[in-house]
Design brief:
This protein is mainly beta and 701 residues long. The protein contains 9 helices and 32 strands.
């Protein structure tokens, strides 16, 4: 009854406001955070607990600090915008060549493929000033700089069980689940940008539960994680130079790709994968980055990259054998947490060396690239498995080579990549994107990932966490024919020829997705999204057989969003999510319904956002990932499960042009429970609340 009344209230309120202000309000402007939220929710649903959006956040922050000049007809620079595809970039270049530089954002509407919704989506990341690349001199660059200092604080208010212990002179034993540090999470981020030609910065971070001032196990002081870089761009023939922590994003991601990578999504139709080739890493993510030197040099139509990396990684170690005193790697850890004794003992226990080169040739229609690199750990790797295929692909030292290609003819783009792990396996990917008309486009991706191909730096299109043991075909279609409405349809079928986690036999998987985005009047937009996934998992029935028999496991997911711009300073957003997941007999259900309010005065000095949500999720199989507004330094995509309600209030204020203050408080209530969480993360009471504080300084000189 409570749920029905809440749904009825939201529906009636939304309809009344839509009718009341349809004639007087301006056309709806979809906020960028909502667009990113839709993308990141689907990425989190696919990746699960291994999802780390910090690299996406870092890239988008860099774009905001150094917007892409839309009058620059350099394709590589234009494609730094994640939402821009090759056809749109080609249409933009043709328009600028024929009619001259764009004068303002309103002129983009004259270009095919740039509708109002898309223009509003990319507005924070573009500029229109026509400036030629000046001769590089430090004296000129140092006169114009933007410095950003971000300080973040995060804490769960309720005390968790992991902190309920005391250490004194008589008690030297610490429980294995005990957190040694305080529950405060701290972040310090500093960046300086000189006209996007020279950038440098560093990040210092401490997660909740980690020690800050003194670590008696590793004998260290200060923050738990440090990262820094110095980056130069367009210095003579050198296109990129970076010293410190950086990312490499090459080809279609099959041979070498670090940082954030998107898979199948109804929000963005997959096409040619494109990265920054080389970019500094300014995020707080403690995994999937390289540390060392990378340089990119241009020779007419050929561009070459040379890189070297040497750093430490977290890993669990065990004795290689009973007769040897040496230790070997049993698992490589990427969580970045160093809160307990065991986590601290695994901190930076191994060394990794990576070096290689990449080169590509570009013509008007062709782009052909080649990558080769060597990756090695300083210890052997042991696996507790009888799978000989897996043993041959996971080695102490690995050599990889790959060829990627792309061909564009008018509105057709075909592309692909083949990658080889020497003395192990290989993987291949091919795809096409075709837009017969600016209002519609097609996409197809075929992949064949080998059984014994194991690449820790592979992030190509696929459903597995690694690009191995997978064969599949993806088909997608997008159309915007009907009154600015956008319809996206896709199907993805894949086959797993060998065993995988929780699946003790070859299996297959099929996924259907659909999304309809449509305006309602002049001030509202609705989004309806549906997905169906059918796969196979081991039966939960207890048996003494060495292999479980497989049963079908399906997941139906329906999402509805309604975004309304009531006044220029007031916007409402409604969300309804419903999920049915599991086997037919034991399927679990879940729903999530929320009402968001965004208030931004016309002077833009402050803004307020709030949410009240109700949910009932029966199990973790039907959990729901929902994006929440937060600060630029702290993404929030909680996994919703259980029965209760959740709300948050976030306030941001600009004290002046240089100082921005932020406050965020969130709370989840679970009626009928005396304890929330499990194990070391449990806390007494039926509620769990969090506090975030943020200070951002923007300095110009």
């Amino acid at each position: 009854m409570r749920l029905l009344l809440f749904i009825f209230f939201i529906f009636i309120t939304s309809c009344l406001l839509t009718d009341l202000y349809a004639q007087s309000a301006d056309s709806l402007t979809l906020e960028t955070d909502l667009q990113q939220g839709n993308i990141l929710e689907q990425a989190a649903e696919q990746a699960g607990e291994s999802f780390h959006p910090e690299e996406w956040q870092d890239h988008m922050e860099q774009l905001q600090d150094a917007p892409v000049n839309m009058n620059n007809i350099n394709t590589e620079d234009l494609l730094r915008i994640p939402f821009l595809n090759e056809i749109q970039a080609l249409n933009l270049q043709t328009y600028v060549t024929q009619y001259g530089p764009l004068a303002s954002i309103y002129e983009l509407q004259l270009i095919e493929g740039f509708n109002q919704e898309f223009i509003e989506q990319i507005e924070p990341y573009i500029s229109f000033g026509f400036q030629s690349i000046q001769r590089f001199t430090l004296r000129t660059l140092l006169k114009h700089a933007k410095a950003n200092i971000n300080i973040g604080y995060h804490r769960q208010i309720e005390k968790q069980a992991a902190y309920n212990y005391k250490v004194d002179s008589l008690n030297t034993e610490i429980p294995s689940s005990a957190y040694l540090g305080s529950p405060d999470a701290l972040l310090l981020k500093f960046t300086v940008n000189h006209r996007d030609r020279l950038r440098y910065g560093f990040v210092a971070q401490k997660d909740a539960g980690e020690t800050m001032l003194h670590d008696t196990i590793n004998h260290r002081r200060g923050f738990d994680f440090y990262s820094g870089y110095v980056y130069l761009k367009d210095v003579s023939k050198w296109k990129h130079l970076v010293l410190g922590d950086y990312h490499l994003q090459l080809g279609q991601g099959l041979t070498l790709w670090t940082g954030f990578s998107m898979g199948n999504s109804t929000t963005v139709l997959p096409s040619v994968k494109r990265g920054n080739m080389v970019s500094p890493s300014g995020s707080s993510s403690e995994a999937q980055y390289l540390r060392g030197l990378a340089a990119v040099r241009s020779f007419n139509r050929v561009t070459s990259l040379f890189f070297i990396s040497y750093g430490r990684r977290d890993a669990s170690l065990e004795d290689a054998d009973s007769l040897s005193e040496q230790t070997a790697i049993s698992s490589i850890l990427e969580s970045g947490y160093h809160r307990t004794v065991s986590e601290l003992k695994s901190r930076r226990t191994i060394r990794e060396f990576v070096t290689g080169a990449h080169a590509y040739y570009r013509s008007n229609r062709w782009k052909l690239g080649c990558t080769i690199y060597h990756q090695q750990y300083n210890r052997d790797i042991t696996l507790n498995t009888n799978d000989e295929l897996l043993k041959t692909s996971i080695q102490r030292g690995n050599n990889f080579g790959g060829i990627d290609w792309r061909y564009t003819y008018k509105r057709l783009t075909v592309y692909g990549e083949s990658s080889l792990q020497f003395k192990a396996g290989n993987s291949h990917l091919a795809g096409l994107s075709f837009s017969p008309d600016p209002s519609c486009s097609f996409s197809a991706i075929f992949r064949h990932y080998g059984l014994n191909y194991n690449n820790p730096y592979s992030a190509a299109f696929g459903v597995n966490s690694e690009n191995s043991n997978e064969r599949g075909l993806y088909l997608g279609f997008m159309s915007s024919v009907l009154r600015k409405s956008s319809l996206t349809l896709s199907v993805d079928y894949c086959r797993f020829p060998w065993l995988k986690y929780r699946v003790d036999a070859p299996s297959d998987r099929i996924e259907y997705r659909a999304q309809l985005s449509s305006p309602i009047g002049r001030n509202a937009t609705s989004i309806i999204r549906y997905s169906f996934v059918s796969s196979f998992v081991n039966s939960v029935t207890a048996t003494d057989e060495p292999m479980h028999h497989l049963v079908e496991n399906s997941r139906h997911s329906m999402q509805f969003q309604l975004d309304i711009k009531v006044f220029p300073w007031l916007r409402l957003n409604n969300k309804v999510y419903m999920v049915i997941s599991g086997q037919d007999i034991s399927a679990s259900k879940g729903y999530f319904i929320s009402q968001d309010v965004f208030i931004t005065p016309l002077n833009g000095r402050w803004n307020l956002s709030a949410r009240y949500a109700m949910f009932e999720v029966e199990s973790t199989d039907s959990r729901i990932y929902v994006y929440e507004n937060s600060f630029p330094s702290a993404f929030s995509i909680p996994s919703i499960s259980g029965n209760g309600c959740r709300s948050y209030l976030m306030f941001r204020m600009k004290a002046n042009k240089s100082i921005e203050l932020g406050f965020r408080y969130s709370i989840s209530l679970f009626p009928g429970l005396n304890q929330t969480g499990e194990g070391s993360t449990s806390s007494e009471g039926n509620h769990r609340s969090e506090l975030l504080l943020n200070l951002r300084l923007k300095l110009y000189y």
